[in-house]
Amino acid sequence: MLVRWKIVAALALFLSGPAFAADEPGISATEIKIGGVFPFSGPASSIGLVGKGLMAYVQALNDRGGVKGRKINYIAYDDGYSPPKAVEHVRKLVESDEVSFMFGQLGTPGISATAKYLRAKGVPSVAIVSGSSKFTDVANYPLITTGLVSYDTEGKIYAKYLTRTLPNAKYAILYQNDDLGKDYLAAFKAFLGKDFDRKVVSASYEVTEPTIDSQITNLKSSGAEALVIAGTPKFAAQAIRQASVIGWKATVIINFPSGSVGGTLAPAGLDKSVGVMVGTTNKDVLDETWKDDPGMRAYRAFFDKYLQGADITNGSYLTGYQQGVLLEQILKQCGDDLSRKNILAQAKNLKDVVVPTVLPGIKVNTSETENMIWTQMRLQRWTGTTWQAFGDVLDARSE
Going by DSSP bridges, is the β-strand pair 376-382/387-395 parallel, antiparallel, or unpaired? Predict the structure, then answer.
């Protein structure tokens, strides 16, 4: 009888412990199991480095003791930017690995292919690396928060900038023929309204195409004075290089997913990229302005230790690092309640969070009705050696 009471007492103590670990997939007294899927290979492998940056941050976090004594077991798989592979990996993460939640899944096609399944399983997908505007619809995607400024917002910022600086010009848009690229095109349509057909010429490409040189040549022949590139780094680099080769002196704007020096500008040619613009949330590691900035000094020290030998100019690593900062913040806010319900609740309860590597004036705020982690950005221009920010911080709510 005494033995029986000891067992009951021990069971009661276990069940009353932090997060009710026995009832929560991926949660134990010592571990939090989290899943991610990235294009580590394939046509979008450059932005897959976001996953490498995040994994390095998790390693650093674990070296500091984890969160409230629990280590993070972050399991990441490579989908090669293929939706069928993304589905396969997400199922494995949920059903075999039994992760608590998904964090930082990257790639609009793969996220689109797996969102319905994750919702059916009740698995939150936090800080997805996609700016597809459809995911900002909280009613249809209640278990998702987004980790990029929406492509719709970003596109409208670019449209507004061009109408102010080149009001009488024609604008060319090269876009990836999927949700990513189409959102930017739709943003220009929404902003320009009845003037869209008169002012914009566009061309699309598939991620399976080896080159987009012909599209760039055709867009130049339209007489456009601006070129907006809405795609992934490989193709953005090709577009910048080809525009330079054929002598197209257009105002060039690239989208944030392609806004990496190491991932886009260097392959295109740093000299050929002079004048290229992009909207960003981040401080530039090459900018002397931030040489003694505490946040960037901490990032450089982290990079030297956990990403030794990698290219610090590739902004995808910085995006991954920032994802890690937010993951740590969310888990700390959860306290002892690591239920899926509370993890999602805290992901939607970020209040004036300042990530040390983002530009001054940019803060993270989420709520039950606002699932976008980032809603602000600032324009910057490549000088040949560094990004030079200009203008004010722009906000989704005012654009």
Answer: antiparallel
Q: What is the pLDDT of residue 397?
A: 55
User: What CA–CA distance (Å, rounded) separates 14 from 22?
Assistant: 8
Query: Considering the chain, what percentage of its residues have pLDDT values greater than 70?
Result: 93
pLDDT tens digit sequence for 189-217: 999 999 999 999 999 999 999 999 999 99
Assess if residue 14 is contained within a domain: no
Structure confidence at residue 286 (pLDDT): 87
Report the C-alpha gap between 155 and 157 in whole angstroms: 5
Give the count of domains, the chain: 2
- Structural domain that includes position 268: 151-280
When computed from its CA atoms, the radius of gyration of the chain, rounded to whole angstroms, is 22
Whether 311 and 231 map to the same domain: the answer is no
Angle at 43 between CA 37 and CA 48, to 5 degrees: 35
Do 173 and 264 fall into the same domain?
Answer: yes
pTM of the model: 0.85
- DSSP conformational letter for 151: H
The pLDDT confidence band at residue 393, using thresholds 50, 70 and 90, is confident
Q: Which residues pair with 78 in a beta bridge?
A: 38
Cα separation, 176 vs 151, in Å, equals 12
What CATH number does residue 240 fall under? 3.40.50.2300
Residues 295, 357: contact at Cβ < 8 Å?
Answer: yes
The one-letter code for the residue type at 40 is: F
285-291 contacts, C-beta under 8 A, 24 or more apart: 285/312, 285/313, 285/318, 286/261, 286/313, 286/385, 286/386, 286/387, 287/386, 287/387, 287/388, 288/386
pLDDT of residue 2: 40
**Domain end position, chosen among 250, 280, 310:** 280
What distance lies between CA 40 and its chain's CA centroid? 14
- Give the span between the Cα atoms of 262 and 258, in whole angstroms: 10
